[in-house]
Amino acid sequence: MGVPENWGIVWKIKAPPRVKHLIWRICRDCLPTRERLRNRFVECPPDCQFCASTTEDEWHLFLTCTVTNQCWRAAGLSHLIDSRLHSFQDIKSLIFYICSKESKEVSGRFAVMLDVLWKNRNDYVWHNEQEEASTLGLKATYLWNEWFQAQERLTSNARLNHALEWSPPPVGWLKCNVDAAFNNNNGTTNRGWCVRNHFGNFIYAGIAWDPGTLRVIEAEALALKEAILRAISSNLEFVIFESDSQTVTQAVLSNKKGDSEFCLIIESILFLLSSSRIHYFFGFFTMSAIGNNFNQLSEDDILPA
Ligand SMILES: [Zn+2]
């Protein structure tokens, strides 16, 4: 099917600029797939690195590889491509068609899935790392939701009301909000965590405290660690951990190393995660979604798991 190249529509889809740039690279035949590298006389094997059944070109990599298929299904987007594959000869036409027929939001989700697939392919090529198809599909959903909500907040200029806008996790995931607080009356450092599902329904919460006051970032890191321990012991599988400490979130994401107490807590968090089967993401929330009132809570206030 011939589709006009309407770049005006493509640039307006609801997706991060980086993702739109990937779309542009795909449509301009710039992506270094194995087929393209070989056409440019770069020596490499031709086959798809995931299924080895055929040549790795964009059509196969993004749309028809068995691994890719599962990702589209997990992201709830397979209807966008399944019924259309037979109508198109190349991915460029399909991209322009989807961007012109679907809403900007749906086209944005589609584009983010392409981006996640390309990143996964590169992680596999360069680092021999590969994520499960179900994780990739959910990751695309999560990344788009987070980006979209951030945009909405910016455009509605509602940054001051940010704290009220707790966003639920994607279907199949739980979200665990974590916070630490100091109780000056009792002289304790209190930590708390609260797990909710994609409906926003409460699953469980927990608290812990120690006598004395820790440094703020240590208390926040400890809260995250205790929340992760509890998630692992509860056999949770897909969890987004959201801390209101950007320092903690960034330290975990950047695999921060060092000899400080804080770094040791971060290291133990990373060890816990790597030795468990839990699938996770980390997020940052500007104010506690569980309330800044942990120091008011007693064990009796918290429901058992
Ligand atoms: Zn394949």
Distance between the termini: 55 Å
Radius of gyration: 22 Å
Decide which structural class fits the backbone: alpha/beta
Low-confidence stretches: 287-305
Calculate the mean pLDDT score and round it.
84
Let me know the number of strands: 5
Q: Name the shape in a single word.
A: elongated
Which bin fits the share of residues in helices?
40-55%
What's the main sheet like? 5 strands, mixed
Q: Strand order within the widest sheet? A: 3-2-1-4-5
DSSP summary: helix tally: 12
Instruction: Give the amount of beta strand, in percent.
Output: 5-15%
Descriptive report:
- The chain is α/β, with parallel strands linked by helices.
- The protein has 12 helices and 5 strands.
- It has helices at 7-12, 17-27, 34-39, 58-64, 66-74, 78-81, 91-101, 104-127, 133-155, 216-233, 246-253, 261-274, and strands at residues 174-183, 188-196, 202-211, 238-243, 279-284.
- Strands 3-2-1-4-5 form a 5-stranded mixed β-sheet, covered by helices on one side.
- A hairpin with a 5-residue loop joins strand 2 (188-196) and strand 3 (202-211).
- It starts with 6 loop residues before the first helix and ends in a 21-residue tail after the last strand.
- The structure holds zinc ion.
- Zinc ion is lined by residues 48, 50-51, 53, 60, 65.
Question: Short summary of the structure?
Answer:
The protein has 305 residues and is α/β, with parallel strands linked by helices. 46% of the residues lie in helices and 13% in strands.
